[in-house]
Design goal:
Blueprint: H1 3-24, E1 65-68, H2 82-90, E2 94-97, H3 104-109, E3 113-117, H4 125-136, E4 140-144, E5 151-154, E6 159-162, H5 163-171, E7 176-178, E8 183-185, E9 195-198, E10 200-201, E11 213-216, E12 221-223, E13 226-230, E14 235-237, E15 247-252, E16 257-260, H6 276-288, E17 307-310, H7 319-333, E18 339-342, E19 350-356, H8 364-367, E20 373-376, H9 384-387, H10 416-424, E21 427-431, E22 435-438, E23 442-448, E24 455-460, H11 463-475, E25 481-484, E26 487-491
Parallel strand pairs: 1-2, 1-3, 3-4, 4-16, 17-18, 17-19, 19-24
Antiparallel strand pairs: 5-6, 7-12, 8-14, 9-11, 10-13, 13-15, 15-16, 20-21, 21-22, 23-24, 23-26, 25-26
């Protein structure tokens, strides 16, 4: 090939490249002189670091139990709220996690507080009813939403559930609902418009001592109850871009329910910002200081304090009664309740009264409110000394007494206990709602709740039957009894028969 042809071919190849280059890159590039921001002069609003708040244990004779819900596909890890659970423990609370083996109603029997954070599967009707009844009896409820993680998606079914929808069904009975939004503030924030700084608070011990709080992407709350954390005029909702007094935390149901629109503030490292830690400790105190009233549905968790077991001098302190005391102590110790034995009530303690029907007159201060009507024909009431006599050895056959002149028939000698059985097991008791019942082989459990003292009364025809009733405390259930209101009627072994079985757990 001639050199001229090679040159022509190369020129043809290079001409398009040169043309494109000259077209797109005209002239010589001179970079523009753009000034960078003066970062040193920028002044971001930074909240102060949190100061640790002393956490003094709550003075309560029984450890308050705080149940955390983890049974509704909750969108958080329990380890994330380690600071919160540690604060509860430091206040003397016992932490429990919801158990699939128990119904929610059963778990709330022993609980002082219930915490629901970001649930994304719905509560059943019976569960919601259990929560409502729990709050009505004085239990504390904490519900928390968070717009950064409130949706659960089921990749198999293709469906998704919003935590706000779940929480709103749970809290609608308390006049509280969450908005499906997030709040923001372009004026006062912690270096991000969604990290809003709050300085307006309502009236509540939960916000006592707070001057500045930072919530991270919180959801606003709609309520007619008691707002306790409130946004300023520049705090706006993402739904409407409007605001003014948006509510981020509120209480309801006479301050027994607390709703908060952000969970992030109680996680690390955000707990160290502003008064966030102080707020968290106040929330923990709110949960452990509630006083829940009980009824027999909660049996045997019917006490809020340590217990005085009231004795009576007319019941001999024999082996059977000592066995009864031991059974009661063991059962209540399982509930972390201490039992003190005394012949009179002790101030500050709840009361457990045990007695047989033959001393019912002595127990009237504790049974009168139940309207019990006894129909017992007493002969001669045995003395304490006679009741304390030992039962004759079974191998010795009954001896005959002197022949009464009237009948001429000998009568077998009976022990004082057998005399008591005959005199006080023949008769009946009329119980409201149950009608007329024979006292033979029937035990009664009566419960009187009170703000200052709860009273539980066990009544039966003999000490042996009282032992059977005390077995229900050990078993933790009134299964086998008929319960109506604050009265339980239980079948016991008739006193002249040898007991063949005790309640489960005895």
């Amino acid at each position: 090939m001639k050199p001229i042809r090679i040159i022509i071919i190369l020129v043809c190849l290079l001409i398009p490249i040169v043309v494109r280059t000259l077209w797109f890159y005209q002239g010589v590039y001179n970079p523009a002189m753009i000034s960078t921001p003066d970062y040193a002069s920028l002044n971001f609003k930074e909240p102060k670091l949190s100061t640790p708040v002393p956490e003094e244990p709550i003075k309560a004779s029984i450890k308050p139990i705080v149940v955390f819900d983890m049974s509704h596909t909750n969108s958080f890890l329990f380890s994330e709220i380690d600071s919160f659970t540690r604060a509860l423990n430091n206040l003397g609370a016992q932490i429990e996690i919801s158990d699939y083996n128990l119904t929610l109603g059963d778990q709330l029997k022993t609980a002082s507080a219930y915490v629901v954070i970001l649930p994304t599967s719905f509560f059943t009707t019976s569960e919601m009813d259990a929560v409502i009844q729990f709050v009505e009896r004085g239990g504390r409820l904490l519900v928390i939403a968070d717009p950064t993680r409130d949706v659960y998606s089921d990749y198999i079914s293709g469906t998704s559930t919003n935590a706000v929808d779940v929480l709103n069904l749970l809290t609608k009975s308390f006049d509280i609902s969450f908005s499906n939004d997030y709040v923001y503030n372009l004026e006062i924030n912690e270096s991000n418009f969604r990290n809003v700084i709050y300085t307006q608070f309502g009236k509540s011990d939960i916000v006592k001592g707070l001057s500045q709080l930072v919530l991270y992407s919180a959801q606003s709350i709609l309520t007619g109850q008691n707002p306790i954390v409130i946004g300023d005029k520049n705090t706006l909702s993402s739904l409407t871009d409007q605001g003014g007094s948006l509510i981020l935390a509120a209480t309801g149901a006479k301050d027994k329910v607390l709703a908060i629109g952000d969970m992030t503030f109680m996680t690390n490292p955000y707990i160290q910002v502003a008064d966030n830690q102080h707020f968290m400790v106040n929330i923990a105190k709110f949960l452990v200081t509630g006083v829940k009233t009980h009824d027999l549905v909660d049996f045997p968790r019917v006490f809020n304090r340590n217990v005085t077991l009231l004795t009576n001098e007319k019941i001999p302190m024999d082996s059977k009664f000592l066995g009864l005391l031991s059974s009661v102590q063991d059962g209540l110790n399982l509930l972390n309740i201490k039992v003190q034995i005394s012949d009179k009530p002790i101030e500050g303690n709840d009361l457990l009264v045990v007695g047989t029907y033959n001393i019912i007159d002595d127990l009237k201060p504790y049974t009168d409110t139940f309207g019990l009507k006894f129909d017992i024909k007493k002969t001669e009431e045995p003395s304490v000394d006679e009741m304390a006599l030992e039962t004759p050895t079974p191998e010795i056959p009954p001896t005959e007494t002197l022949v009464p002149e009237a009948t001429g028939k000998p009568e077998p000698t009976r022990t004082p206990e057998e005399t008591v059985v005959e005199e006080f097991s023949k008769g009946s008791v009329t119980v409201a709602g149950f009608g007329k019942l024979p006292i033979k082989g029937v035990g009664l459990i009566l419960y009187t709740p009170g703000t200052d003292q709860n009273i539980l009364v066990l009544l039966a025809d003999s000490v042996s039957s009282l032992q059977e009733l005390s077995g229900y405390i050990s078993s933790g259930s009134l299964s086998g009894c008929t319960v109506q209101g604050q009265i339980a009627v239980c079948q016991t072994t008739p006193v002249e028969e040898t007991p063949t079985a005790y309640p489960s757990g005895y």
